[in-house]
Amino acid sequence: MSTSSRWFLALTLPLVLVGIALARGKKAAEPEPEQPAVVEPASPPPAPPPKLFPTPLPVVVDALPPGVASLSAQTCNACHWAAHDSWQGTAHAHAWSDPVYQAALASAGESTVCKSCHLPVATQHDQLAAGYIADDVTRPRLQDNPGFDITLMSEGVTCIACHVREGTVLGTRTTDQAPHPVVASAELQSSEMCATCHQLSWPEGDRAFYDTFGEWKASAYADAGVQCQDCHMAPAAGAPQPGAGAVVASHGSPTTIQRALTTLVSLPTAAITRGQLVEVGISVINTGAGHSVPTGNPFKTWTVEVVLVDAAGKDLAAPHRTTFSRTVEAKSPWKTTADDRLGVGATRRWSASFTPNPKGSPGLGTVVVRAVRAGQTTELRRVPVVIR
Ligand code: HEC
Ligand code: HEC
Ligand code: HEC
Ligand code: HEC
Ligand code: HEC
Predict the structure, then answer these.
(1) Which ligand minimizes its atom distance to the CA of 286?
(2) Is the beta carbon of 264 within 6 A of some atom in ligand 2?
(3) Which of the chain's termini has less CB crowding within 10 Å, N or C?
(4) Which of these, 90, 89, 65, lies nearest to 79 by C-alpha position?
């Protein structure tokens, strides 16, 4: 079986199950036998909010909510500028335009499966699969999509992918103050919603390929009811604006590696002597991420560097490096070959040995611990030390 057919199966199998669950739900909702007449005409119970991701992706969003001029993020921006501005710079907004993704898509043969989570709305696709030749999902029978909208395509995981269904806006609460219909959706505020795209398994894989939801589900955060949104969409400070009161959920994921990790340094004394071996103890604890660090895509790693800097700011020795990563086989179903990531609440301890350069400057130096990814460095801890 080829790579893309596995992506497809992994994606569709759970959705088939969802389909079955939905069919069951319908049965249960069949009309009850007639009840005796009541005196007061009771108002009909509110309709349940539409499902966010009920069918295999892409999801059909074609009805414009009354009061909204277009389905583009720029239209929502007119009123929800804080949500818009925090979303604009994110991986969600660039899920299609991201050059790393575009390169991977080209090498995967422009697979329709690769477009599903990155372009979750049907009108974002110029062609849609209308069945498969010989049931081979790598050979979709593609049909031009008359509803194709290249503007929406450029917006990647855009507002309506998460907020508009059946001509209604799905929000956190009902309101009659909005110029468009709004219904409250518990699903929108749940980790399950994020799992639609942040959890993925191959039928013959030894474990989930993307397991962010699975890692969360197995953690104390899930037991305590702390959802992905609680950390990734925490309210951002800002001016009050229509529809959101004084606080607005950030759509820009204010999570950082500093917030994920607690970094502790140990040394036998507060002073280091140049030319003499010193062992710097390091502990890194995952105290802030609701999943492993790193999570998701197995091609992502974090390297933690420990450096000793003299009073002049110069390195006294070569940096000591430790990597947090998961490695997978190069071919499908990408079985895991090694995994030394940091699970929720887990600690990694190691010691970095240095013989500081005798030619360094004496005075107040520093032990610096920093996280490095793709050439970008983030400081995790600075501890001043006396250099003799
Ligand atoms: C189940 C939903 C889903 C499908 C299907 C999917 N992706 Fe993704 N993709 C994601 C998510 C979610 C992320 C980001 C989160 C992460 O890295 O864990 C991502 C990230 C990526 C990245 C990393 C981008 C960067 O800048 O780091 C690349 C490249 C990528 N996907 C390529 C592909 C290709 C190629 C396919 C088809 C073989 C594909 N994706 C199919 C959900 C999906
Ligand atoms: C990946 C899904 C996703 C995308 C894309 C998305 N949102 Fe949201 N949005 C959410 C979730 C989830 C919440 C609720 C967060 C919570 O539980 O507090 C939310 C909350 C909101 C709210 C409620 C008020 C508030 O700020 O607390 C507004 C308004 C909103 N989003 C507007 C937008 C706009 C405008 C866009 C596009 C620029 C957008 N959203 C894109 C998922 C999304
Ligand atoms: C419709 C699919 C979809 C949904 C739903 C979704 N995401 Fe994503 N998410 C993606 C894709 C695709 C990417 C990666 C885009 C890229 O880099 O090419 C991504 C990237 C991210 C990233 C950035 C990862 C990085 O590499 O920096 C975070 C954080 C994230 N998502 C959190 C969430 C959270 C939290 C939720 C639920 C509130 C959520 N997402 C819901 C598709 C989705
Ligand atoms: C003309 C202004 C305007 C436009 C355009 C607009 N909205 Fe709204 N929206 C509002 C107002 C005003 C409210 C709610 C008022 C209140 O109850 O405080 C609201 C409420 C919401 C809520 C619920 C807020 C919550 O707390 O859960 C969401 C979600 C939302 N809008 C999303 C969108 C999206 C997505 C778009 C674009 C498709 C959009 N809106 C377009 C003005 C607008
Ligand atoms: C307790 C808070 C917390 C919860 C709950 C949480 N996260 Fe995170 N998440 C973080 C922090 C902190 C980071 C930054 C760590 C990093 O950059 O590696 C992060 C990073 C990420 C990343 C980027 C990973 C990378 O390597 O770039 C993705 C994607 C993500 N989270 C998705 C999710 C999803 C989906 C859920 C729910 C299933 C979730 N998170 C739940 C705190 C949380």
Answers:
(1) 5
(2) no
(3) C
(4) 65
Tokens read off for 304: 């933690």
Burial of 106 (0-12, 13-18, 19+ CB in 10 A): exposed
Q: Taking phi first (over 0 means left), then psi (-120 to 50 degrees means alpha), and beta for anything else, what does residue 135 get?
A: left
Ligand 4 atom with the shortest distance to the CA of 163 = 35
CA distance 254 to 250: 7
Structure tokens at 284: 């890194």
In whole angstroms, what is the distance from residue 326 CA to residue 205 CA?
Answer: 14
Q: 87-128: per-residue pLDDT in tens?
A: 999 999 999 999 999 998 998 888 888 898 999 999 999 999
Is the CB of residue 284 below 6 angstroms from any atom belonging to ligand 3?
A: no
Q: How far is the CA of 79 from the centre of ligand 4 (A)?
A: 7
Task: Name the token pair of 369.
Answer: 């611990």
Q: Is the pLDDT at 1 greater than 50, yes or no?
A: no
Given a contact cutoff of 8 angstroms between Cβ atoms, the answer to whether 375 and 297 are in contact is: no
Given CA atoms 336, 341, 346, 351 in this order, what sign does their dihedral have?
positive
Do the beta carbons of residue 303 and residue 322 sit within 8 Å? yes
Ligand 2: distance of its center to the CA of 249 in Å?
7
- pLDDT tens-digit readout, 243-270: 544 456 789 888 899 999 999 999 999 9
- Token pair 């070959």 in the structure block, residue: 337
Handedness of CA 166, 169, 173, 175 (dihedral sign): negative
Residues 6+ apart with CB under 8 A from 45: none
Hey, whose CA ends up nearest to atom 14 of ligand 4? 243
| Burial of 50 per CB tally in 10 Å (0-12, 13-18, 19+) | middle
Q: Is the CB of 148 under 6 A from ligand 3?
A: no
What's the rounded Cα separation, in Å, for the pair 172 and 187? 9
Contact 195, 156 (CB under 8 A): no
How much distance in Å is there from the Cα of 298 to the middle of ligand 5?
14
Is 172 touching ligand 4 by the criterion CB < 6 Å?
yes
Atom of ligand 1 nearest to the CA of 101: 29
Tokens in use for 107? 């090498």
Our answer on whether the CB atom of 248 is closer than 6 Å to any ligand 2 atom is yes
Q: What's the rounded Cα separation, in Å, for the pair 82 and 241?
A: 8
